[in-house]
Design a protein that fits this description.
It is a single chain. The protein has three helices and six strands. A four-stranded mixed sheet has the order 2-1-3-4. Strands 5-6 form a two-stranded antiparallel sheet.
Length: about 110
Amino acid sequence: MKISVLGSGCATCRKLHETVKYVVKNENIDAEVEYSDDIRRIVELGLMRSPVLVVDGVPVDVSSTSEKDVKEALCGMVTKDNGCCAGGTSCDIKCAPATTDSKKVSDCSCGGNC
């Protein structure tokens, strides 16, 4: 997974980057985290604000730079091999296996296939 924080270099942008790195490390999320102050990348995404949190090329709405808000924002984006969220490891969502006739069913609370 690739996580980018796009910003202008302001204190809020740097704080979001540091918080993302902290959450990724503490939650053992397998991700590369980068920071970019290339405003063109924000404009290319069709956004006119910063900072922007981007996970695998998809902008993710984050309410603030707090650890709690960053963790919640990343929650739906963090996936494991089974296509489900980290099952409580990083997003506090318990995912129960749900299979029918050897097919995975997408009825997990995280929206993934458990």
